[in-house]
């Protein structure tokens, strides 16, 4: 949410959540196709710049899905969390 707020001009942000079979999928959707989000290496003294890095490290899977194909009108940044299998 903070990244959308800081890096886009979109006025409307959606959060979609799906939980099923011990898997949670969370997507933040905005109406800004201009910027492609990517994890970066933040300097040790920076207050920000670690959100996508943390998502990449902690999530089972994550990605970006563009709305409307070759002429995108927005994007979904999503991640999936899975409950560890207990044996």
UniProtKB/TrEMBL annotation:
InterPro entries, per the entry: Anti-sigma-factor_SerPK, HATPase_C_sf
UniProt cross-references to Gene3D superfamilies, sorted A to Z: Histidine kinase-like ATPase, C-terminal domain
Signal peptide region: none
Protein's UniProt name: Histidine kinase/HSP90-like ATPase domain-containing protein
Species classification: Bacteria, Bacillati, Actinomycetota, Actinomycetes, Kitasatosporales
